[in-house]
Structure formats: C-alpha cells, structure tokens
Amino acid sequence: MAKQNDRPTLATVAARAGVSIKTASRVLNGEKHVAASTAEKVEAAAEELGFRLNPTARRLRAGGRSPYIGVVLSDAGDAFQARAFAAVEVELATLDLRPVVTVVRDDPDREEAFLDECLANDLTGIIVIRAHPEASETYARAASAPGTRIVSLDPAVEGPGISIVTGDDREAGRLAAEQLLAHGHMALGVIGDHSPSLITTRRLQGIQDAIVGRRGVGWRAYMREDAHDEASAKNVVAAWLGSRSAPGALITLSATVTQGAIDACRRLGEWPALVGIDDFPTAELLDVTVVDRNVESLAAEAVRRLRDSADSSVSWGGPNVSGEGGGRLGEGDGPIAGEANGRDHVDDGVPDFDNAVCVIARGSGEEPPDTR
C-alpha cells in the first residue's frame, strides 16, 4: 500500500497489477496486443492509486518538445506588455502550447536564470515581450544554443538566431508630435522611460523628424528620459505644471508614463494637451489621445514564427536586421533600418503582418494651446 502522500508511479501501478513495468506502460499508452484481462488489472490498479500519465513526459519520450513557451516581461503592470501577453497566450492556445512567465523588473540576473531554466527544461521556445535594457548579451548566448528558438517584440533583443517582431516606434513618435503641432502647440514636454531603451530612442527620433524644419518649436528643454514608472512620471509632470514655463502639451512615450502624467494633471487640476504612445484600458474613458499599434497582429506573428521555426527545425539568422552587416539595429544615418514603408524587417519568404501605428484621437491631443 502506497503512503497517502506518495505520488503513484508507473512502477507502483505495475506492482499492484502484478505485471511488468513495460506491460503497464503499453496498457496505459493505449497500445494493442495486450490481453483484455491484463489490461483490466492495470487500469484498475491505476484507478485505485490515482495514477495519471504525464502528457509532457510522454511527449518528450516520443521525441517531441515541451508544450511550454517561456515568456519574458519587464513590467507586468505596463499596459502594452499586459495586452501583448494576453494576445500571445491566446495564440499559443491554438497550438496547444502554454506560457511559463517571468517578470524581470530591474533584475537582469533573474532574467538570465529564467533563460537558463528554459534551456535546461527544453522549452519549445522563448517569446520576449520586453527585456531588461542590459540583457541583450544574455539572449545572444541563449540563441547560440542548439535548437533554441527566440522571438522578440523588443527590438533591443536582436542577433543571429533571434527573430524580431516589432512596431514602427519611430513613426509612433512622429505621429504623436504631428498631432500636437497640427493643433498649434509649440512647446512640447516629452517624457520617456529608461533612456538606454532602443524603443525610447526611436520614439524620440520620430519626434525630432516631425519638428525638423519648423521654426519656434521647443521640446529639448522639456525632455525627460528618466521617468520609467507612474510615480516618476507623475513627479516630472507635477514639477512642470507647477512652474511658470510649463510646456503647453505633453508627449508620453509609454502607457505607464501616460498614466502617471494623468494622475499629476488630475491632482493639480491642470490639463495640458497630451498624446500618449500605446493605448491602455482607461484611456477611452479619460478621453486620452494615443498612438497605438495592432498588438494582436504582433502576437500572432510572433507565435507563427515560433511555430514555423519549430516545424522546419532550423534556427533564425540570416542578414542582420539592420540591413547592414555588423550594424546594430537603429544605428547609422537615415531612417531607422527596417521601419521604412511602415513595416519591420521580416525573414525572406515571410509574409507581411500588420505593424502599422495610428493616432486614436479622443480629445486630449486635440486641445488648442489656449485651453489651459
């Protein structure tokens, strides 16, 4: 009799039924050519002991891969990351795959340990929604391991063996600035998150694209790149609104920063025009104008690339995604590489996907300068 806290194994089932482990395995895996009386004994023993086959172990023994996909987020509270994860989870379910999630916050060591666990447990692949700014080398090492499949929605996670699926962040910055400039604003306060972030860099470049050639537009005096959460964004905006030289309009470079800015405006009763990049759940209720992208399309493309790579049993690679040998994505002169014509780099033979960005005008970005 097994102890109450013992987990039944195939060996204990075989012993209870009085058969060999091989025979018990054949019965429980539904194989033919086993005597009916023997099958009945094995099935009865399994029922009595509460034994259940481990489908993951069975799949791995049969030469398959794990049904689990590692998913990396930097901030579970960020609206874009939450939306992207929900969409990825839906897409994975269509392939009978399940996510194993880590939220790295500001801990690159945690991120590295998670990747090591994913590799050690032979997970089918890894999807990076947002990584720590200092983790790119960690992913490059992971991608070099045989059979590793990595797809990233974070453009900073790049290199051989890593497929990038991302929106046009430079265009997002340009559209945000154009929306405010079109309504007469000349002093723009720009609030960003981690300054080393490639996403932030691209969005700032887009803002600069919109301002080039326009006289009298000020924004660099009002630029802050160190607001990476709601609290810090709230403090930046509160300090600006409390000064005599406050900008007349705000561009917030992430949904988290937008929410912090709105909190400061509400508490001070000051409502400058505002355009945020990335939508969030309460934005429509608060009449917040945003620049957004099709998150569901990005998630579907990420999972499709993961599936196709697993089916073909070949790793990603090919030319550097910057389009120039040896160059880092986003460096060099001219437009950000891979974002021309409103689409990011895709592998040869891979169909286009919807990564266009657009303005969702709800009111806050359409206020003229004299409404403050």
From TrEMBL:
Location of the region described as Disordered in the Swiss-Prot/TrEMBL record: 309-350
Single GO term (MF): DNA-binding transcription factor activity
SUPFAM superfamilies: lambda repressor-like DNA-binding domains, Periplasmic binding protein-like I
Composition-biased stretches (Gly residues): 323-335
One Pfam family, short name: LacI
Domain of life: Bacteria
Ranges where the HTH lacI-type domain occurs: 8-62
UniProt entry keywords in alphabetical sequence: DNA-binding, Transcription, Transcription regulation
Coiled coil: none
InterPro entries hit by this protein: HTH_LacI, Lambda_DNA-bd_dom_sf, Peripla_BP_I, SBP_2_dom
PANTHER family attached to this UniProt entry: HTH-TYPE TRANSCRIPTIONAL REGULATOR GALS (PTHR30146:SF109), LACI-RELATED TRANSCRIPTIONAL REPRESSOR (PTHR30146)
Protein name: Transcriptional regulator, LacI family
The species this protein was found in: Brevibacterium iodinum ATCC 49514
